[in-house]
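User: My collaborator sent over this chain with a note saying "see what the structure looks like." That's all I know about it. Can you take a look?
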Amino acid sequence: MTVGWFRAAATSLVAVSVMVGVAQAQAIRIDIPAGDLGPALTAFARASGLQILADPSMTDGLKTRGVSGEMAPREALEALFAGTGLGFELHGDAVIVRGTAPAPAEPAAPAPTRMKPEAAAAPAGEAMEELTITGYRVRATAGGTRIVTPLKDLPMSVQVVNQELIKDLGARKIEDAIRFVSGINKVNRNDNLGRGERFAIRGFNSSLIMRNGVPYNVFSDTANIQQIDVVKGANSILYGFNDPGGLINYITRAPQAEAAYSVSQTIGSFDYYRTEADATGPLFGDTRYRLMAAYTNAGSHLENGKEEMVFINPVVDFALGEKTRLLLDYEYRETDSRYQRDAYPQVRDLAGVGIRYADAGTRYSPIFPDDRNIITAQNLELRLTHEVGEDTTLRLVGAHTEIDSDQFNMIGWAMVPGSDRLLERRNYLELNHQDTDFVFADLSTRFDTRWMTHQVILGGQYLRREGESFGRTGAYAPAIDVLNPPTDPAVRYYRPETRDQLAAGAVFVESAPTESKGFFVTDQITLADDRTHILVGARYDDLNGTDNTTPQAGVNYTVNDWLSVYGLYSESFRLNASYTLQSGEVRTFDPESGINKEIGLKLDLFDRRLSGTVALFNLTRENVLQVIASDDPLKPIFNLSGEERSKGVEIDIAGRIGPDFTVFASYAYTDSEVLTSTNPALVGAPLEGVAKNAVSVFGKYDFGAVGPGDLSANAGLLWRQGPILMTNNTPGNTPFAADSYTVLDAGLDYVLPSGLALSLKVTNLTDEAYMDRRAAYAAPRRINLVVRKEF
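Assistant: Without extra context I'll predict from the sequence alone. Here is the result:
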């Protein structure tokens, strides 16, 4: 990044800060009647702009005497909690609810970064659950630093999708839940490996998805997700090897001390049926459990498509004394599906060079009735937390993941050369098994020196991943006319071989193992002025015998109550996958490296009801693995070359505008470019799946009491500017691009006092036809009805 670019960016930030001004009220006007404590706290949060952090079950059954008048937030809270047996502590703009009332002597409110050890030292995945009463706004997270920190004090962009937004979206997968975060684009789902979702974050492909800080990129399910952190930029220092654009860390729901139960049933378009259940509570003493489960049985908008999924996640949180807890977490997921794989076919010239996608219609389906894709994923996680002292916590995490896939499909990825109608087809069988072992340990402590407060983490991690696979391609079946396919199923769905014939004599090839050992230290420093927050750290990695040291440095300065400015320099380090070449040779490649430079603003607007981040970034990465030749898309040949760059602006806002309207919105300008490539046609081209301009807006309006229950309506808009590159770095192909598109969603929610809730969700309301990832049209309009009951 040039100095001139940074100067221009800084000038832009100053201009934004000059235009924004918000007066923060010292006292609030409040009128909350006597009644249930939970809704009363919701009303207080709306009036004050403060965030309530608590165990969601703490307020069940408790009543408040209410409060009315103009007063400071602390006075209002004291009145609301009077006689409830609960207490609270104010930490900056967050209110932490405690199980017992505070001592009569009122201590001075501590600085925002001087949080209690049980909150400040919580790792990603163990952060205190949030009683979501400020809409979609989340004020603190551990996703960016492994220490729960107010978002406005972080020298980086971290966007959080909380439980309320996940429910309002009707999201079932991570890709559904993060659509409205800036700089996020779908790429391909990596279906051929059965290993989960893949996104472009700030222009760069990213497949690193973390589950409670542990690498776990398996097709996700929101049945057990509490919130999703999207951490932007290079972050290898905390999580090890990752992509420079950022990473996704989702936090699962934790066991609770009070019993609570819920069940939901969804019925939707294309024979969609889904059941979810969630139960939590005490087992004995202070030991708690949680059991989350889901079952899906669904058809598809594509002919012959189907999905059947079983998901179960039991968790037990053992109390091993007053200062030690052991959490045992097991997750099992099995999916049996038929879906569009290798997707929309390419039209090729007589030389076999791809020139465009075929014009086969938006509901073209290559799926055979006897295709099969059975993917099983299991994860066992142990997490030990011990309070060594008042300000020091030790954490140990161990996890083992197994993924198995059995996939038998008829692949039709391209037309006969020279034809735009005749589709080449052949069978392909792929069997995979992968094991991953992960161990993590860290010691976090807080201490003061003369002019500053330090929150230091010393940690290390070990990862080993190995597996084996078998793949075999069958003979070509007779080509068919995709615009006028045969009506006889025996002809249309003819297979030259059965699965058993392709599997005969299978010899599994072991993949080259991935072994990573890393050690890191970070220090979050707050200077005595309580305005300057500094993040510094370094990490050493040994990745398959390759050494690397990764630095990170950032600073955040609080200008006033509503504005902070920040700057960040960080690096990433990522292993390039090994590949078995057509000759049978297993080839490994040097790691990929990336650099992120970023400056930005953090905003708290409308009496702290609305938070925002404005980020200007410049990312580069080198040692990009690229395809150099292939006569078979399932057996590419790779070369290590290439440099890519992405720079741009991102704006994210979340919170309330007025007492009844909640919004989560973003804008992203992403200027991505391939700087060098083995494919000359791609030099200067944008990166795959990235829209240069993207706008995302989701809002909800609460109508309040309507009849016996409360009614709310929500709507979403996604706009992506074309052309959007839809092909990977394959030299033989002409880059294909998708056009601009606009997608609208809508929904209604009605909640009764009994805990019964009805939801109607409509996605792609206008039935827009568009490609949202490589060679695949997005689903048409879908309507889901959800009935949910909480006990």
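A starting point for your reply to your collaborator: The first helix runs from residue 3 to 19.
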